[in-house]
Amino acid sequence: MNIAAFIARRIAFNQQKSFSRFVIRLSIAATVISVTVMILTLTFASGFQQVISHKVFSFWGHIRIQSYYAARVSIAEEAPIHRSDSITDLPTINPTIRKVQAFATKNAILKTAETIEGVLFKGVEEDYDFNNLKQFLQQGRWINFNDSSYSNEINLSEYTANQLKLKVNDQVLIYFIQPDAPPRPRKLTVAGIFKTGIEEYDKLIAIGDLKLIQRLNDWAPNQVGGYEIFLHDLDRMYEVNSDIVPYLPIGLQSNTIKDIYPNIFDWLNLQNRTIWIVLAIMIVIATLNLITCLLILVLERIRMIGILKSLGARNSTVQSIFLYHGSIITLFGLVLGNFIGLAVAWLQQKYGFISLPEDAYYIPQVAVDIVWWQIVLVNIGTFIVCFTVLLIPIIIVKKVQPVKAIQFR
Questions:
Q1: Nearest residue to 192 (alpha-carbon basis) of 222, 217, 169, 219
Q2: What is the pTM of this model?
Q3: What does the alpha-carbon distance between residue 353 and residue 375 come to, in Å, rounded to a whole number?
Q4: pLDDT averaged over the chain?
Q5: What's the rounded Cα separation, in Å, for the pair 250 and 241?
Q6: Is there a contact between 229 and 61 (Cβ–Cβ < 8 Å)?
Q7: Poorest-confidence range of 183-187, 207-211, 260-264?
Q8: For 137-173, what is each residue's pLDDT tens digit?
Q9: How far apart are CA 85 and CA 91, in angstroms?
Q10: Partner of 313 for a Cys bridge, out of 32, 201, 237, 308, CB 3.0 to 4.6 A?
């Protein structure tokens, strides 16, 4: 029979009302709260970064190819480039590449009888994969294409449609800005309305047919504004961006979307600092509470330590009592903290009861992404820190003298 473990259990599960019992419960509660907050911080932050990144990549791909001049001067409208088999064949060369899509953009003004609104008209082709954007479609459908001419349909953001008081199937007059000529008007029908939640997109982007931009810019059918590359694994974005350079025709340049829109991703990276700050604070709280609890327990059990030593108990045996005791507190806190944290994360994932102001955070509710290796690290890190704290009683127990301890009141 393990005497140290037996005594530790008797102390930990003592039903008598005492100050130490209150302190033990308080320490367990503090550990539970710390572990719960750390788990929720990681799952919420990871979910937030994943959802926002997915929105950005769904709209623009992971890598963009365009003319070297347009990429260098960061203009909205692209200089035309010729279609290239070496680019469209990239998915067969690199299996990480899922799809390559042509696009072009052009500045325009939408006009109704009451108001006007500026947009960046993004032209896409018939083979454009709208599955990437289906989560954003609020009303109607995506534009239809025809073989004989350009599509006379347009997809507007919910913000733009509200500003212009337009609904699905309404017609809108669009004026395309020409560099050295008067604006060229076209009448288009609103096929559908989308909403990304990202202000920079919803206030700016409209989607239409690439053929219309080709006609307005007097481009040949084999000329486009650029290519968007979608990947299977976004973690290999920079690697793929470097690998495709030898396959690009002269005069073209590839950039990752993270490099093109650094403000959004810099903002997301700031969330990592917040995560580390919260984790540090929670670990400090759990550590201080455990230290306080153990010190009180040792002081309250001084007479017990003296009696055990006078009966021949070794220092190691007495020290083991408090090691077992601290371990019980830590394990109870970890188990309950994991249960509560994961339960709240699951409920949020299923029901979304925690909402957010979408205009500030780009999402209407807290997103959840449970990364199990992060959960495991939280548990291991918390246990290691708490176990290190458990070494404090060892130092105190060694210095306790039995005669003085028995007389201690």
A1: 169
A2: 0.74
A3: 22
A4: 82
A5: 16
A6: yes
A7: 260-264
A8: 999 999 999 877 889 999 999 999 999 999 999 999 9
A9: 11
A10: 308
Strands 116-124, 205-209: parallel, antiparallel or unpaired by DSSP? parallel
Cβ-contact 113, 165 below 8 angstroms: no
Token output for 328: 């019980």
Average pLDDT of the residues in 69-80? 59
What CA–CA distance (Å, rounded) separates 198 from 202?
6
Question: Which amino acid, 51?
Answer: V
Is residue 104 within 8 Å of 85, Cβ to Cβ? no
Identify the CA nearest to 20 among candidates 34, 32, 31, 8.
8
Residues in the chain: 409
* Paired strand residues for 186: 174
CB 232 within 8 A of CB 83: no
pLDDT on residue 173: 93
Per-residue confidence band for 72, with pLDDT thresholds at 50, 70 and 90:
very low
Tokens of 105: 């953009």
Ranked by mean pLDDT, the top range of 81-90, 281-290, 388-397 is: 81-90
DSSP-derived letter for residue 77 is: S
Name the token pair of 148. Answer: 């004989």
Of residues 331 and 190, more confidently modeled: 190
Tell me: pLDDT of 62 over 60. yes
Residue 74: pLDDT over 60: no
Cα 199 to the center of its chain, rounded Å: 18
Phi-psi region of 308 (alpha: psi -120 to 50; beta: other; left: phi over 0): alpha
Q: Quote the DSSP letter at residue 235.
A: G
Per-residue pLDDT at 110 exceeds 90:
yes
DSSP string, 9-44: HHHHT--S--HHHHHHHHHHHHHHHHHHHHHHHHHH
Q: List CB contacts of 17: < 8 A, sequence separation 6 or more.
A: none
127 DSSP assignment: T
Contacts (Cβ under 8 Å, ≥6 apart) of 8 = 320, 321, 322, 323, 324, 325, 328
Structure tokens at 268: 């997301």
